């Protein structure tokens, strides 16, 4: 039940996060946590940030020593689903579809919370999964900082609406 409630809260926070940067007057802290533009990575932050923020609630509510690695797996799964299905669709359909993208966000978030729920209820988590989870958390934190400081030239970081950098 907690994971379902957290999924709903993450959905609301992520949806609001899409608009917070502009509403905040381009506040740098808000831009660090939520989408500053329309790039894929900035949209990943709309799911990752709520997952990480709400994991504090989970840590208080659940005394699970593996929670950090579980959340790392959760954000990795969320991100891989988004990237795979977003760019997979672009291979076949060149036109952008907002309904598809929005639905994909909620489905990826839901699946990631289901997997998180399953892992939280596991008796034992293999060490390799724990390591992958921790590395995922560190990777995304690094990418948050790095993309805030530098303008990255990789397709996942490019704003498709910014034609001045083509």
Reconstruct the topology from this structure.
Elements: H1 2-23, H2 28-33, H3 40-61, H4 67-92, H5 98-120, H6 127-149
Helix pairs in contact: 1-3, 1-5, 3-4, 4-5, 4-6
Describe this protein's structure:
This protein is 73% helix and 0% strand. With 166 residues, the protein is mainly α. Helix 1 packs across helix 3 and helix 4 runs antiparallel to helix 5 (98-120). It is globular and about 45 Å long. The relative contact order is 0.16.
Strand content: under 5%
Q: Order of helices and strands, N to C?
A: HHHHHH
Helix content: over 70%
**Overall pLDDT score:** 90
Mass-distribution shape: globular
Low-confidence stretches: none
Query: Strand tally, please?
Result: 0
**Strand-pairing-aware structural class:** mainly alpha
Please compute the radius of gyration using only Cα atoms: 16 Å
Q: State the helix count.
A: 6
Largest sheet: none
Ends: how far apart? 47 Å
